Amino acid sequence: MDTRHLETFAAVVDTGSFTKAATVLRCSQPTVTTRIKALEQSVGMALLERLPNEVKLTAAGCTLLRYARDILALSDEAQVALTSDRPVAGRLDIGTVESVMTYRLLPLVEYMYRRYSNVRISMHASNCGETMSQLRDGRLDCVFFVDVVARRRDLDVEVLCPEPLVLVGGPDHLLVGRPDVSDDEVRSATLIRAETGANYHDQFERLFGAGNPDERARVLDLDSIDMAKRSVAAGLGLALLPEIAVEEELAAGELHRIDWSAPFHVFTQLAWRRGSGSHATLRALVTAAVQVVNEQSEAQA
User: Fold this and answer.
1) Residue 217 gets which letter from DSSP?
2) Considering the entire predicted model, what is its pTM?
């Protein structure tokens, strides 16, 4: 397959149109059309469905897109390696959830920045389900997330560290200071969701009947850790958060730990598409992530 054809194919998918892809690639629209037709002829099947107002991937196109992005990334890496004294170079598009990006990844970014001057890192914060989808279709190179440990289809996963969760309330909340808080007492409180799509929230809410409006507590969906912490401090409800995200507020007395523990354990993890781990830049990131997060965890112990 011609890499120009794969690049054009990816550009059409990303922009959603042949015209926009031509603008991005700085070529004519007929050139884009010719390259797509040549690619479809080479694989023997249609890759894109041309609709009046959009372009959609066929089933074959969805399959090829993942490989096309890997091939293009590897081609870029090879080009950089041939023209650079450093073997580790290129761009990494990294997906993550807010809690990991804010409280875990800054030391890793700093490490990569200082050690690998030819590596460009782009962070994208979103909910766990969306980042996993973007990882599988090739828009992201890897994803940091917080969840229980489980096998994941088509992905390799490195478990980096346990991520203790803590239920917190404001100084004047009725459950603050009460020993052995029960599930029923937590269920009766307003719950504040800080990260939409975070799997630990899904498990937490299932525990308290999130699927049954008659049984579950009121839920405020704020989708912001900072806003959730401020709302909890103001007495609006309780929030379940990674302990690392509330250490300063707990120490300052702005938030208080509720004497209740989640019946499940989650871990900060790093995932990448199976088979893409041979890329030197991604290997360097995985190695650095293990080292940096281990050092961070030891310092907090």
Assistant:
1) P
2) 0.67
| DSSP run (H or E) holding 142 | strand 142-147
Q: Do the beta carbons of residue 47 and residue 64 sit within 8 Å?
A: yes
Question: 3-state class of 49 per DSSP?
Answer: strand
Per-residue model confidence (pLDDT) at position 140: 92
| 63-83 pLDDT, tens digit each | 999 898 888 878 776 765 654
Contacts of 77 (CB under 8 A, 6+ apart): 89, 90, 279, 280, 281
> What is the per-residue pLDDT across 134-167, written as a single tens digit (0 to 9) for each?
898 888 999 999 888 888 878 899 999 999 999 9
DSSP 259-299: S---SS--EEEEEEETT-TTSHHHHHHHHHHHHHHHHHHHH
Q: Measured between alpha carbons, how far is 107 from 94 in angstroms, rounded to an integer?
A: 15
Contact yes or no for 47/36 (Cβ under 8 A):
yes
Strand 142-147 versus strand 90-96 pairing type: parallel
